[in-house]
Amino acid sequence: MLYAIGEIILVVIGILIALQINNWNETNKNRQQELIILENILQDLKNDKVGLNNIIEKKK
Q1: Residue 60 has pLDDT above 90, yes or no
Q2: Mapped to the 3 state alphabet, what secondary structure does the chain carry?
Q3: Average of pLDDT values for 19-46?
């Protein structure tokens, strides 16, 4: 009986470790996606700035 309880505890610990690793991987993926999105926003803002400066120069 004691052996069975020990086995159950080991399985539960293994599952908890696997879930923690999965959460860590998902967090890293989300951070990478966030960085890509922020880089795209920055590039869009730079492009908008250039376009607006061109419009301003044409109006002068």
Answers
A1: no
A2: CHHHHHHHHHHHHHHHHHHHHHHHHHHHHHHHHHHHHHHHHHHHHHHHHHHHHHHHHHHC
A3: 98
